[in-house]
């Protein structure tokens, strides 16, 4: 590249720079002019009566707006205070109600507890009473046992507990059948009064003797064929029973009378009556025989208050 070309290039560059600088300067001058113009215009506008009026209106408007906003805010605050106060009051009422409910619950629970404690006390009392009664009963039983030993073995008095007569219907008339034979077809369910001594010289062993002829007679009432039994067969059967039982019964003491009821009625059938020489001997026999087994039967021995053998035997025994 020649020197001339180089120079031209630099000259062009310098010229472009000059032009750019001149343009920039002109632009700057224009902008400054515009600003000055705007400022001047602003001043003119601000001092004009219409602008001043407008500015005053603006100020009043803003003031009014502020007042209005304050009023709305105050009202909103008052509303909030009112709502808050109401809520507080409701909360207080609720608290009072809750307190009342809690108190009511506590009272109710106290009542339940008191009732439960009362029940428990009652149960305990009943239990204690029962225990005491059982202890007393046991004590009486032991005492009676001792007194009986004394009465039987050492010639003591009849125990006081036995010196009485048991009655099934104390306010009703005496049952004539029971009085006569010490038994009644209605048993203890009889509407009349049965008097039974707790101790006597006579023992009654109900349905002790049994013979097929007695049972057969009973069946015949219901229509089955009656079987005839020879009287001697019946007699020998009875004799066998008599000689079997009598020595056993005599072991306890002297027997004054021994009777077997051959009546077919269920409450009299095979009843055995034993009269001992004394109630002491009868009690001795009673203690041994009660509940004992004989010929497949368990004996249920009773003391009997028969007044007369004659009445008993003539009346019902040999029907
Ligand atoms: Zn009766």
Task: Draw up the topology in text.
Blueprint: H1 3-46, H2 49-153, E1 165-167, H3 176-181, E2 195-197, E3 202-205, H4 212-220, H5 231-250, E4 255-260, E5 272-276, H6 279-289, E6 293-294, E7 297-298, E8 302-304, H7 309-317
Antiparallel strand pairs: 1-2, 3-5, 3-8, 4-5, 6-7
The structure holds zinc ion (ZN).
Residues 175, 177-178, 184, 186, 190, 192, 194 line the site of zinc ion.
Describe the model.
By secondary structure, the protein is α+β, with helices and mostly antiparallel strands. It folds into 2 domains: 56-157; 164-317, RRM (RNA recognition motif) domain (Alpha-Beta Plaits, 2-Layer Sandwich), CATH 3.30.70. It has 7 helices and 8 strands. It has helices spanning 3-46, 49-153, 176-181, 212-220, 231-250, 279-289, 309-317; strands spanning 165-167, 195-197, 202-205, 255-260, 272-276, 293-294, 297-298, 302-304. The strands form 3 sheets. A 4-stranded antiparallel sheet has the order 4-5-3-8. The radius of gyration is 66 Å and the shape is rod-shaped. Mean pLDDT is 90; it is low at 218-227. The structure holds zinc ion (ZN). Zinc ion binds at residues 175, 177-178, 184, 186, 190, 192, 194.
List keywords for this structure.
319 residues, alpha+beta, Alpha-Beta Plaits, two-stranded antiparallel sheet, 7 helices, 8 strands, 64% helix, 9% strand, rod-shaped, binds zinc ion, U2 snrnp auxiliary factor small subunit
